[in-house]
Design goal:
Layout: E1 2-6, H1 8-15, E2 23-27, H2 31-36, E3 40-41, E4 48-50, E5 57-60, E6 62-66, E7 74-78, H3 84-89, E8 99-100, E9 106-107, H4 112-118, E10 120-121, H5 133-145, E11 151-152, H6 154-165, H7 174-184, H8 190-199, H9 203-206, H10 223-230, H11 233-241, H12 248-261, H13 266-283, H14 290-299, H15 306-321, H16 337-351, H17 354-359, H18 364-383
Parallel strand pairs: 2-5, 10-11
Antiparallel strand pairs: 1-2, 1-8, 3-4, 4-5, 6-7, 8-9
Helix pairs in contact: 5-7, 5-8, 10-11, 10-15, 11-13, 11-15, 12-13, 13-15, 14-18, 15-16, 16-18
């Protein structure tokens, strides 16, 4: 029985790049032996075990055989005589097919270290094309390491194109697409994710609603700026989709179609819709009167969902900064006057003592109407010095 560190941890160690991955491959062992040693089995389709103390994943070395469509259409085979090299051969990219033994020796049968040095994302073998999920994974790795100079190898890009032409991208399931999308939105250069998909022809198949966003290379959404400022996938998604179409109604329709098809969490959908609907009004906040300011608080449901409202303001900040066409703006996420004003408005509205109205005899519909008027009056007092 031998244990090797594999994949991302080895790749990023060689790159001197921060990594939170820690995966292991075990050769020469069986499920029965792993369980006897205290490991807990968690995989049904192939034997993966959790370490009894660290809870890291340890997978028995295995091979795969394509038996059906999609990324789940594989039969896995594991036995004590499967070698480390055979296990590494089934992996996607050479930079992910590097292992390290207990003494720190690097095992690199497919030239992954050279590709790391040359900043190349290259597939390991022709079996790469059997798994359509790898289209998204290559695009995501390109987004992660673009700032280090990594490019997709020409032959790998051609293979991606062949996979798309063969209809492979049509067999991806919504949950995995969403997972890869949100992961890509957290990388340093998320726009590269979509560029790679566009280059191989997959963008219009996997994300047809987003095709208009990337039609004009000179007018791309400020995704890198979003990551630089806030490192929040929901914010980045809203910035990605806020202006898909010149028509607001069509933008909302496309956002709804995309999030529904990919089964996006509600908070992603809500923030994207809110940003598409109201980013222009937010940017004009300093010129709005008290009634309009409170109207924005109401329509955005900020009193019930203040955290989402703060995310909305951050989206608007990113959009505002992206309007600087010449030079780099002085980026300071703490300074965005419309957000400062609107947060003050929200606090004033929220802090108004409704009990005073109840004591004055207001109730039911009349209480709601008077509360609104009173809040608008407080906001009007708040903004007087700025008018």
């Amino acid at each position: 029985m031998k244990i090797y560190r594999v994949g991302g941890a080895v790749r990023d160690k060689l790159l001197n790049y921060p990594s939170h991955e820690n995966d292991w491959v075990v050769t020469g062992s069986t499920p029965e032996e792993m369980i006897k040693l205290g490991y807990r089995q968690v995989g049904k389709d192939f034997p993966v075990f959790l370490h009894p103390k660290t809870h890291d994943e340890y997978a028995l070395a295995r091979t795969e055989r394509k038996t059906g469509q999609g990324y789940t259409g594989f039969t896995c085979h594991s036995s004590p005589d499967i070698t480390l090299e055979e296990d590494l051969l089934r992996r996607d990219l050479t930079i992910n097919a590097i292992a390290e033994d207990a003494q720190g020796k690097i095992i690199d049968p497919f030239g992954g270290q050279q590709d790391l040095d040359n900043r190349i994302l290259r597939h390991v073998s022709a079996a790469f094309s059997e798994d359509p999920l790898r289209i998204l994974r290559v695009a995501r790795f390109a987004a992660r390491y673009h700032h280090l100079g990594f490019k997709v190898a020409d032959q790998t890009l051609e293979l991606l194109k062949e996979m798309v032409r063969a209809g492979q991208a049509e067999h991806l399931i919504a949950e995995r697409v969403w997972q890869e999308l949100t992961s890509a939105l957290g990388e340093q250069s998320p726009g590269i994710f979509f560029q790679v998909l566009k280059d191989c022809g997959a963008l219009t198949i996997i994300f047809p609603e987003l095709e208009p966003v990337f039609r004009d290379p000179a007018n791309q959404p400020p995704l890198a700026l979003s990551v630089q400022l806030y490192q929040d996938a929901a914010i980045c998604f809203a910035v990605l989709t806020y202006n898909i179409d010149s028509s607001q109604a069509e933008t909302l329709a496309l956002v709804n179609a995309l999030t529904r098809r990919l089964r996006a969490p509600n908070h992603f959908t809500e923030l994207a819709r809110l940003t598409a609907l109201h980013h222009q009004q937010c940017r004009r906040a300093l010129s709005l009167d008290a009634q309009s300011l409170y109207g924005l608080i109401e329509t955005s449901d900020a009193l019930r969902k203040p955290d989402r409202f703060k995310q909305f303001l951050q989206c608007c900040h990113i959009i505002e900064l992206s309007q600087f066409k010449t030079g780099t703006p002085d980026i300071n996420k703490e300074e965005y006057p419309p957000a400062t004003l609107l947060l003050s408005v929200l606090r004033a509205a929220k802090d108004y003592d409704v009990n005073s109205l109840v004591k004055a005899g207001y109730k039911g519909k009349a209480l709601g109407e008077q509360l609104r008027e009173s809040r608008i009056a407080i906001i009007d007092q708040l903004i007087q010095p700025t008018n």
